[in-house]
Amino acid sequence: MKIVIRKAKIVDNQSSFHQKTVDILVNNGIIDQIGGEISDANIDHEIHLENLHISQGWFDLRGRISEPGLEHKEDFETGISAAIKGGFTDIAILPSTIPVIQSKSDVSFIKNKAFSTAINVHPIGAISKDLAGKEITEMYDMHKHGAIAFSDDQQFIENPNLMKIALLYSKNFSGTLMSFPHQLSLNKGGQVHEGITSTRMGLKGIPSLSEEIAIDRDLALAEYCESPIHFSCISTGKSIAKIQNAKANGQKITSSIPVHNLYFIDSDLEGFDTNLKVMPPFRTSADRELLIEGIQNGHIQAIVSDHQPQEIELKKCEFDNAEFGIIGYQTCFAAAYSVLESKLDLSQIVHLFTDGPRGIVGLPINTIELGAKANFTLFNPAKEFTLDVNQIASKSKNSPFIGKALKTKVYGIINKGQFELV
C-alpha cells in the first residue's frame, strides 16, 4: 500500500528533515521518498490536511488497559481507540489486571491481543507477585517475551530488601525498574495534597514527604546496587531536586510526570470534583513551576497520561469514597502542549512523547528518514478543541478535561503499515 502525505512539516530533532515542509511517500510501511511534490501514479491514499505537522509516533509510558479481568473499565478495543485518538502509536500498559501481568504467558497474551492493531502495545511486568510486595516475579522470563519494564503500578514496594533484589536482578539484563514513590504509612487515608486546600475541604492530606522519603530510600538502594532506576509520576519540587542531585553524583536516574499534574493544582479540587482525585495528588502552584523547570533542565524525560479508567459508580460518589485516577490518552499531548507552549518549543515538547520515553526503556528511536519504518503521528498544534463527553472513546468517562479548551488537534497515526485518521 502506498500513502503520500502532502505538505507536512517534520518535527523531529533527530531527522535531517527537521522543520522542513515536505511530501512523504510511504510504501508498505517504509518511508520511500521525502522531498518536494511527489508524483506517483500508483498511490492508494493521499493525505492533505490543514497546517499538518508530523513527528515520530508518540509513546505513552504509563497507562492501563483493564483487560483481562476488568473489562468493564476498559478493554483493548476502547483503550486502543482512545490511544489512537490521542495520537499514540505506542503505549506501555501497567500490570494491574486480573490476573496480574507477572509471567511470560501474561506478557504474550497482551502482545498477541494487540498484534493486528495499528499501535504497538508494550506490557510492563509486575515486580512482585500479585503486586503484593512480598515475592519477586520472574522478570527475566517476562523480559525475553516482550515486557519493556517492571512496575508494581501504584504500589510502593515497602520492603527495602525486595527492592534491592529487584534492582540487582533487573540490572543483569538491563531491565528498566520503575518505582512509584509514595510511602504508604505516611499517607494512609489521604485524599488530596496536604496543605491549605485539604484543610479548607476537611479532607485528610497526602504530604509531599510521603513521596520524597520514598525517593530518598530508592536512590540509596540504587546507589548501593549501582543500578539505574526510573521514578514514575513525580509530583513535588523537592523530588526533582533530589533526582537532580543524584544525577549530578553520577547515578543513572530517569523520571516522568503525569500530564494532569502539570495542568491542575490542589486548589482546583475545592469544588469536590472526583474526576480530579488522582495519585499522586495535584500539588501546589510552586510545585508545578518546579516540575516545569525540571522539564526545561532535562531532569524529566517523559510526560505520561497515567490513563486510569474508573467506572461511574467509583467516581460519582462522596469524595472520600471515590477511587483515584482519570483517563488521559485522548488529552495527554494537548494538555501538555497547552501548558508548555510558552515554556518550550514544539520539538522539545514532542521529545517528551517520542525519544524521551523510548530512551527510558531502551527502545529504538523512530527517526523520520528515508528507508526507515513509518511510525508517525499527524497533528495540528495550532488548532484548539473542546473535549465533549460524546467524543470520548474510552469505556470509562472519568476525565477532568471535559468542557476544557485544549490546543493541538490530532489527525491520526501511521504505523505497522496501517493508517488511522480520526
Descriptive overview:
This protein has 422 residues and is α/β, with parallel strands linked by helices. The protein is 28% helix and 22% strand. The chain contains 13 helices and 18 strands. The chain has helices at residues 76-85, 104-113, 139-144, 160-171, 184-187, 196-201, 208-225, 237-248, 259-263, 285-296, 332-340, 346-351, 355-361, and strands spanning 2-11, 21-27, 30-35, 45-47, 53-56, 58-63, 88-93, 120-125, 149-150, 178-179, 192-193, 205-206, 229-231, 253-258, 302-304, 376-386, 405-415, 418-421. Helix 4 (160-171) packs across helix 7, helix 7 (208-225) runs parallel beside helix 8 and helix 8 (237-248) packs parallel to helix 10 (285-296). The longest helix is centred in the middle third of the chain and has 18 residues, at 208-225. The radius of gyration is 21 Å and the shape is globular. The model has no long low-confidence stretch (mean pLDDT 96).
Structural class: alpha/beta
Number of helical elements: 13
Largest sheet: 8 strands, mixed
The overall average pLDDT, rounded, is 96
Q: Termini, distance in Å?
A: 20 Å
Query: Helix amount, in percent?
Result: 25-40%
CATH class of the largest domain: Alpha Beta
CATH homolog superfamily of the largest domain: Metal-dependent hydrolases
Radius of gyration: 21 Å
Number of strands: 18
